[in-house]
Amino acid sequence: MSETVKRRFGDRRDGRWVRDVPGLTTIMMHLMPNRTAAEVYVNEKIDVTELLQWLEKKNAQHPEYKTTLMHCFIVAIARMIRERPKMNRFIQGRRMYERYDISLSFVAKRRFSDHAEEALMFFTPKDTDTLDSLSYKIAGQVKETKKSEHSTGGIDATVDAFAKIPRLLLIPIIGIIRCLDFWGVNPKFLTDGDTNYSTVLLTNLGSIKGPAVYHHLNDYGTNSIVAAIGTIHKEELVMPDGSKQIRDVVDLGATLDERIADGFYFVRSLKLVKHIFAHPELLDQPIGEPSNFDFK
Questions:
Q1: pLDDT single digits (tens) 149-208
Q2: Is 46 among the domain residues?
Q3: Confidence band for 95, pLDDT divided at 50, 70 and 90
Q4: Could you count the other beta carbons within 10 Å of the beta carbon of residue 2?
Q5: Which of 24, 165, 222, 230 sits a CA distance of 20 to 30 A from 211?
Q6: Where are the alpha helices (DSSP H) in the chain?
């Protein structure tokens, strides 16, 4: 939790209680108490032509280390959330909260094989982070994870330990955990590093030549946004001047909890992501610096 934030009565360890919620949203939280009942789906084609050209030049400067599209995707989402704070909200226990920090997560395969285990990756970018600093952190964490074919600690080891409990005991234990989750008092060893407690859960299906999909949300935890990108492909687009060009495009699919903000806010947030991809130099700036994007 950010040290500068003072907790008040009703706040959670991972977020402050948003008290000025519109009446309609308050009623929606009671009519649709489950996150999975309030899912909305967004699909957008993003032109990454300028971004790929920029990446090629950037990677030529340090051939020993490669910055990837996924790294750019993660940083662009982090920048967007920093500028659009309502995207960092969640609903649990029929109340709305806003996180103290931005948290991003994804699932990494330890090996590219059918039987390889998956590892949960979770990190919290700071306002001073840039594409370079975050991509080094991500790459280092993934490399460390792939050294072993099995979980070596953290939330992965916790999940494995719970999975060994007999079903007769596991059912009431999970019931207790879900009750604690409702009131926001789950112990930290159950929440730290869990993708279900991140601002955004990300996936790059293009890395396995797959399409962008709509991934469901989860009623457990606080995650309100899941976003996926697919395979980069060529597509004819109409440019602002009316001409047609063959461009490099990637599909973005996102699932959101519609209760955290309205559609107008969601659409503007997506426009900011597209703006960042069209102006990749913004990725080299600290996340805390505004993009000065004109939403008109």
A1: 555 557 778 888 999 999 999 999 999 999 999 999 999 988 988 899 999 999 888 888
A2: yes
A3: very high
A4: 9
A5: 222
A6: 23-31, 49-61, 69-83, 131-145, 154-163, 167-183, 188-191, 263-278
Distance (Å, whole) CA 111 – CA 148: 9
Task: Work out the pLDDT band at 131, boundaries 50, 70, 90.
Answer: very high
Return the closest-CA partner of residue 276 out of 139, 73, 102: 73
DSSP 292: -
Alpha carbon distance 287, 282 (integer Å): 9
HSE-CB for 66 with a 13 A CA cutoff: 5
Domains: count for the chain: 1
Q: Which residues contact 19 (CB under 8 A, 6 or more apart)?
A: 10
Q: Which residues of 117-126 are buried (b: 16+ CB within 10 A; e: fewer)?
A: bebbbbbbbe
Q: What is the pLDDT of residue 89?
A: 97
3-state secondary structure of 261: coil
Query: In the Cβ-directed half-sphere of 201, how many Cα atoms lie within 13 Å?
Result: 23
Length of the chain: 296
CB atoms closer than 10 angstroms to residue 273:
21
In this structure, is residue 222 part of a structural domain? Answer: yes
On whether the CB atoms of residues 137 and 124 are closer than 8 A, the answer is no
Is residue 32 in a domain?
yes
Range of the domain at 24: 17-147+193-284
Check which CATH number belongs to the domain holding 47 and give it.
3.30.559.10
What does the pLDDT read at residue 1?
Answer: 45
CB atoms within 10 A of CB 69: 18
Helix 263-278 / helix 49-61 crossing angle, nearest 10 deg:
50
Q: Establish if 176 belongs to a structural domain.
A: no
Q: 169 — phi, psi (to 5°)?
A: -90, -35
Amino acid 4 reads T
Q: Which of 99, 169, 154, 160 is nearest to 121 (CA)?
A: 154
Mean pLDDT of the 255-267 span: 93
